[in-house]
Amino acid sequence: MADSKEKSVDNPENCADKLSELKLKQIEDDVASSYILVDIGANLTNSKYSRDLDSVVERAKDAGVRKIMVTGASVQCSKEALRLTRLYPGMLYSSAGVHPHDAKTWTDDCYDIIKELASNPECVAVGECGLDFNRNFSPQDVQMEVFEKQVHLACEVGKPLFLHERDAHDDMVRILEKFKDRMPPAVLHCFTGTTAQALKYLEMGLYIGLTGFLWKDKSDDGVRSILEKGLIPLDRLLIETDAPFMYPNVRGSKIPANIKQALSDRSLSFLNRYCTFQRNEPCSLPVIVEMIAAYMNRPVDEVAMATTINAIKLFGFS
């Protein structure tokens, strides 16, 4: 009886060894499940990040996000985005442009200011620019005029276009085709359109950027369907959070059970702990790439690596 009791008591050294093994396995699991990702669009100049941007950037790194392009949506925002790149060199990059919502604020000196901002090596794209006929915060004719000027500017400086389009597909195509012989590469950011629209943009050589919008897409001919049919080639796909917007609500009833099951505990831990509807963060990017891969029925590592290579190729990240 005494012998059996002695056998049931663990040696303290053995316990320590087992604990070390468990910790090592956890570290190995974390490393193995950490992707190498690029967030091609995050609005980190937004005031919602004014108090804890250091923590936001660190969380993104911990989640596997290696590069973030800070979106410029106005002249002032573009200046601030460039400033942030100097605070986080090698991690943050920027774009410079005027969003269609702010097209009405365009003045004669905007072209030269954006051109100067875009001349900096940390500024890797012209935009966010384009057309938004859904909300029409600026008159449509003004939007088209300002957008065309920014496409011309991108052609002049030779930097990629970061494009925004809502309910304006035909006019977007018409303006871009004016510059088809000299237009630099471009990405249609936060795509939410139809199959026909996606195929047209791909035919024009554009990249397609996808966000957490996936969770609420309920169209029979929308982004989910496009992914399920495999219509976006991996070498034309990019991913982004559009933070603090486009929170991927993975608990939503619109997401099928098999998609939810494809989401890793590690990725969900970042999303559930740090992101909300009110403030999404770049650390939600792993959940987004896992959703995309699940809808495509492709290995998530393959999709993650392809989107990262595409971003490096498009924007010239080091």
From TrEMBL:
Superkingdom: Eukaryota
Pfam families in UniProt: TatD_DNase
InterPro entries xref list: DNase_TatD-rel_CS (IPR018228), Metal_Hydrolase (IPR032466), TatD-like (IPR001130), TatD-type_Hydrolase (IPR050891)
Sequence positions that bind a divalent metal cation 1: E128, D242
A GO cellular-component term linked to this record: cytosol
Positions with a binding annotation for a divalent metal cation 2: H164, H189
Keywords: Cytoplasm, Exonuclease, Hydrolase, Magnesium, Metal-binding, Nuclease
GO molecular function: metal ion binding; single-stranded DNA 3'-5' DNA exonuclease activity
PROSITE patterns hit by this protein: TATD_2
Transport found in the keyword field: no
Keyword Metal-binding included in the entry's annotation: yes
Membership in a protein family: Belongs to the metallo-dependent hydrolases superfamily. TatD-type hydrolase family.
Protein's job: Deoxyribonuclease which catalyzes (in vitro) the decatenation of kinetoplast DNA, which are circular DNA catenated to each other, producing linear DNA molecules. Plays an important role in chromosomal segregation and cell cycle progression during eye development probably via its DNA decatenation activity.
Name of the protein in its database record: Deoxyribonuclease TATDN1
Organism: Ceriodaphnia reticulata
Taxonomic path: Eukaryota, Metazoa, Ecdysozoa, Arthropoda, Crustacea
